[in-house]
Amino acid sequence: MLNQANILTLLKENGKVYIKEGSGKIFSLHKGSFAEQEQIEGGIYLLFDLFQIRTICVSFSEVSLDIVEFASKPTIYESPANPMLPKGAVVNGLVRFSLIREPNWNKLLFQISQPVLFREESGVEATVQTSLLFPLFHSGTKELFLGPEGEVKIQKG
Q1: What are 66-71's contacts with CB under 8 Å, separation 24+?
Q2: The pTM is what?
Q3: Which of 61-65, 85-89, 115-119 has the lowest mean pLDDT?
Q4: Residues 44 and 88: beta-carbon distance below 8 Å
Q5: Distance CA 64, CA 96 (A)
Q6: Which of 47, 30, 65 is nearest to 136 (CA)?
Q7: Where do the domains of the chain lie, and which CATH numbers do they carry?
């Protein structure tokens, strides 16, 4: 079970929360505005809706949007960052993101209502624990570079 109210409260109060998911892995979620204050190395923006891409990336072609919309497995994308994005999660002008479709995690992201940064953690205590598996820890997770004009490069697949 996912205690969404607790996660939302911790995010609101602290700007971040540490979650231990069903396989025992720990990850953090950071409010996007938190990236203005510190470098979040390896951060991946989590999105609940396709239209959120506009807030973190430069304008996308229909081809690029279709690739994200019709992906069948959990996928991490890397694309040119929106210049208005806080610099904390931008590396060499690129930003990483993933559209989370799993219903429980998608609902949590919807309730947060803004892109949040995900980062796998080690050596920290989890503040929240759930039996649910987090989709990006799936062994079949793919990584793609997506250019705004429809360029695609498989980085891990």
Answers
A1: 67/144, 67/146, 67/152, 68/99, 68/146, 69/99, 71/99, 71/142
A2: 0.91
A3: 85-89
A4: no
A5: 14
A6: 47
A7: 4-156 (3.90.870.10)
